[in-house]
Amino acid sequence: MPTGIGNIYADEALWRARNHGERIAAKLTRPALRVLLSEVQTVMSEALRAGGTSFDALYVNGQSGYFERSLDAYGREDESCRRCGAPIRREKFMNRLSYSCLRCQPRPRR
Ligand SMILES: [Zn+2]
Predict the structure, then answer these.
(1) Could you say which residues form the signal peptide (predicted)?
(2) Torsion angle, CA of 17/21/22/27, rounded to 10 degrees?
(3) Taking the domains of the chain in order of start, what are their residue ranges?
């Protein structure tokens, strides 16, 4: 399921950056974008440190490692946010399912 890899990165990084995906598509300030990109790097390096040579390998063998223990947003629908306790929501975003916290990652106003 290789198409899921980017989704996991994105959801985890957005959660850490307390940002909502729709704001990325719209207008994100430069500082906010920097935060987000650095969170993406953190997620990736943590995943690799958790025991893989590549993220693809981790994903394939994911059951035993990183994905079971370390995901804060992805795949945690209706579970409590580890930061604030609000439920994690699952919503459709840009033709994929996205996981985010109702409270930490408010949706932008239109
Ligand atoms: Zn939260």
Answers:
(1) none
(2) 50
(3) 4-101
